[in-house]
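Fig. S4 source data, part A: sequence.
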Amino acid sequence: MDSTNNSYQPIDCNYYDRLEAWATMRTVCTILFRDDDGKEQEVLARIEDVYALNKVEYMRMDNGLVIRLDSLVAVNNIPLPDHC
């Protein structure tokens, strides 16, 4: 994903709330996302924080990985909706 905020697409508000709930419950999540090259990657980790920086939303995992929310494909087999 392009790291500039010009191309950032906010994710569905309800999905964002779900990510925050998983973080609060310290749920181990299966996260499918697209890396900087557009390739799908899968990781098993806990969400430590969901936050915004310079109008771009991210989540930080307990393994140190930081993922832009608009690069998510699915979390816990729940696909990211197309729009808010």
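Fig. S4 source data, part B ends here. The chain has one domain: 5-79.
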